[in-house]
Amino acid sequence: MSANVQSINTAEAEQELTDGFHLIIDALKLNGLNTIYGVPGIPITDFGRMAQAAGMRVISFRHEQNAGNAAAIAGYLTQKPGICLTVSAPGFLNGLTALAHATTNCWPMILISGSSEREIVDLQQGDYEEMDQLAIAKPLCKAAYRVLHAEDIGIGVARAIRAAVTGRPGGVYLDLPASLFGQVMDAAAGEKSLVKVVDPAPAQFPGPDAVTRALDVLKGAKKPLIILGKGAAYAQCDDLVRQFVEKTGIPYIAMSMAKGLLPDTHDLYAGAARSLVLKESDCVMLIGARLNWLLSHGKGKQWGAPGSKKFVQIDIDPKEMDSNQPIDAPLVGDIESCLTALLERMGDDWAKPSNDWTGAIRDKVEANVARMAPKLQNNNVPMDYHGALGRLKRIVADHPDAILVNEGANTLDFARSIIDMSKPRKRLDVGTWGVMGVGMGTAIAAAVETGNPVIAVEGDSAFGFSGMEVETICRYDLPVCVVIFNNSGIYRGTDVNEAGEDPATTVFVKEAKYDLMMQAFGGEGVTATSPDDLERAVRDAIASGRPTMVNVIIDPAAGTESGRIGNLNPQSVVGKK
Question: What's the CATH architecture for 208-363?
Answer without folding.
Answer: 3-Layer(aba) Sandwich (3.40)
